[in-house]
Amino acid sequence: MAKDLKYYMGLQYVSETEWDEDEKEYVIFCNDLPGCISCGKTLEDAEEEFKDAKMEWFSACLEDGYPIPEPTEVLEPTPKRILSQ
After folding, report:
1. Dihedral, 31, 21, 49, 43 alpha carbons, nearest 10
2. Is residue 79 scored above 90 in pLDDT?
3. Among 26, 2, 11, which Cα is nearest to 69's?
């Protein structure tokens, strides 16, 4: 299988979700994807934004020839850790 955008979007990266009390919004990030972060006033908005952020992150890496790490963790979902796909 070619490691293209579809391949990377299909992998399950462990993301972390936090509530930012100062900004009154959810923040989602993934330690495996430095700089890939999203925010939203609702959890659903933040999750949707995170999908877009991952797609843009992967696209930029593929376009510029930067390596994309495979997921390093496989965890069960919990309120603080959401498996994003």
Report:
1. 100
2. no
3. 11
